[in-house]
């Protein structure tokens, strides 16, 4: 079984009980998976709001680098403003 | 794509470029092919190289004035790639005008190519950038632009000439059409003109654009784009513009504000700001106005009144400035159902939220709210960042050196110092001025002691002003000094990428730029649940287990395997099976969210406020929900009591907040409501949805009975599918409870029974027995002869049954004309006659046979066949057809 399929057999999710939210991270192909559908049904039955994060195509590392450096720059500008 | 064949010929790549604007050459569509052939043969002759169509970039039907052309852009990209790969590039094109007809842009292109070392060859212009100098090129480029501008001028002049003569050049407005026999004449379109009248009528009666939109959309009135498409299709032409079936406020506004409907032709209302420029409104003085040009649909008085109302509403309707609210997620949010962008709700005292733009504009007839709180989205983004922080901390740490580099690069001290010096210089200057003023004041007072008061008053204002300016400069100096101190501390403090990431997490709200980096778009479904499409590929994140986390810090991730019930030692929790699901959320491992570095105090405060509000409102709404509350009081503790009340109160609050954008039947004019229409116009006038709405009687809190009915029909796949839906299935439709589902099913059952009854009223006669049985019980015991006729349709179904005569003990008198008069009156295709013999013996008499023959003959002449004549006895019958009489 390829590694990506191992991923498909799992759903990564997180529950925010205080705000009645369930966050789930999926790949585009997992949208139609039984696990995901079951999670949707479960969230609805418990009146939790499901927030789904769907994976994109860009390099995650580059994105994180941008985010961090942007905030470094912002903090510098903020202090010098 | 760079062709390899081309590449292997050496280190030089040969690209061709061809362009054609249809305006320039409408007739010769083969010109592009000719250009390509010319380029190919030139390259072969000059460089002995064969280039294919792949290496020739072409922009067909694109103006040379614009430089935003698909293949031109692709060419530039490929040139850059080739240069990066160390290749030499040669571009060959027919002439300079193919590159472009915009003088500065064309020269910039040539300059750019020169800088990049790209060789440009213009075949017809005999120009080779590596050989010829570019003295003449500037003139050629200027000349090429002149050509476009000349054409533009000529077209404009022609249009203005036609405008001046009163020719209407654009498509006619909604409500009018061109006379098919005389296309220059504009006549009223009887199909759409009443809609224009209705729009004005509603507007003058006080209805707003939105309400008119809802009315028109609900009644399936064709929109202007639908009408335009139909007109084009009728002419056998394709309509390429977007067509919408939903009326939007802009359409109504255009109709209300257009004086064309009063018979005025106004031309030249807009003009283009340059070639391919933006559309601009023209001044009234520049417009061509023709009064009484065509037949008006709206009277001038009504139109003027409508304009007055519109102006008044414009003044009163304050919508707020765009910069007033920071709508962080605007632009990212898209309604999952209608695909339109979502708009922010910024109501004072209410949570910031977003709703579907279509819903906002048109109402629930077009889409539902898709209401999503700004807070929910921010919580989600923070959760995403947290999970990254906890799973990919090692990756983040890799940015440490870059963070330090960025900080060290940001040396702002010089800027600060310069600013500080400037401020100090200004301070000195102002102080000197003040000193001079004080001296002059003292001098003036000393020289004229009698005018000392006046002198003092005159100098005082200047003095105060200077003092204020000095105070302001002092404040700025202090501020700048503080900032420099802070910056120094900031630069001294060794910042790590993780600490930067933590500071992002600690922000109350993320910046727009952060969101731009993280998110592609966010869709919100009907259940108000968002799907956040990330830019990054998170496959790596999904593959990581807590055990694999280099940081080892994942305490919050829950992984789920369908069907498996297991919980890892760390925090791997499987979704429980059905029987355990109820307890799933109650047990501790699921609330695994780590608290924010900065706790969401706002949420805490709001929830405490909500509780307080609940208690105070509980007394207020006591009368309304007393039954529920009393029941709860009796059964539950005070704590559990608050639950339902809270829900109730929140429900009310939601209604209040959404009332403005929701449509109920009350919003529809009384005469157009289903029940009223049914009463007035009859049941046939109602659509399926309206009939179902009548049956449902009420809608839900958020939608009218009609919309609910439309949704039920949609779910069922149309009216046909309704009987196939079980009560349980029906209750899965939002807004349909058991009661409503049963109402619908009761209606269906009644219809079915009625239909059966009607079928029973019209039995099919297939044999003499069928006919005899139909009347046997009725006739067998009668003491007098009754002559009965069954009138049949073409399918031998009984349309009617009539006793035409009642005779004596042994005879009944009937004339063929009476029989066939009734048959004709009822539109009968054939008839069967029956009469009884009170004796109980059905043996036909001579008279019976004679009458049968006469009836058969008459039927043949008239065209209404006598199928049989049956004589009913006591439980038995004789068919004269079976006897061979007919």
Number of helices of chain B: 32
Structural class of chain B: alpha/beta
CATH architecture of the domain at 4-156 in chain B: 3-Layer(aba) Sandwich
The structure class of chain A reads alpha+beta
Shape of chain B: elongated
Structure commentary:
- The complex is a heterodimer of chains A (81) and B (886).
- Chain A has 3 helices and 3 strands; from the N terminus they run H-E-E-H-E-H.
- Chain A has helices spanning 3-8, 34-45, 60-80; strands at residues 11-16, 21-26, 49-54.
- By secondary structure, chain A is of the alpha+beta class.
- Chain B has 886 residues and is an alpha/beta fold.
- Helix content of chain B is 49%, strand content 12%.
- In chain B, helix 8 packs across helix 10 (249-256).
Write the layout of secondary structure elements.
The complex is a heterodimer of chains A (81) and B (886).
Chain A: H1 3-8, E1 11-16, E2 21-26, H2 34-45, E3 49-54, H3 60-80
Parallel strand pairs in A: 2-3
Antiparallel strand pairs in A: 1-2
Chain B: H1 4-8, E1 12-20, H2 31-47, E2 56-60, H3 70-84, E3 88-93, H4 96-99, H5 103-116, E4 119-122, E5 127-128, H6 137-164, E6 176-178, E7 186-188, H7 193-204, H8 209-218, H9 224-234, H10 249-256, E8 265-267, E9 270-272, E10 279-281, E11 288-290, H11 300-316, E12 333-335, E13 342-345, E14 353-356, H12 357-362, E15 372-373, H13 374-391, H14 393-397, H15 400-409, H16 413-447, H17 452-492, H18 497-506, H19 512-518, E16 519-524, E17 530-534, H20 539-543, E18 558-560, H21 578-584, H22 601-620, H23 622-635, H24 638-658, H25 674-681, H26 688-696, H27 705-716, H28 727-731, H29 738-761, H30 768-779, E19 786-792, E20 798-806, H31 816-825, E21 830-836, H32 846-862, E22 865-872, E23 877-879
Which keywords apply here?
heterodimer, A: 81 residues, 3 helices, B: 886 residues, Rossmann fold, Hect, E3 ligase catalytic domain fold, 5-stranded mixed beta sheet, 32 helices, 23 strands, 49% helix, disordered N terminus
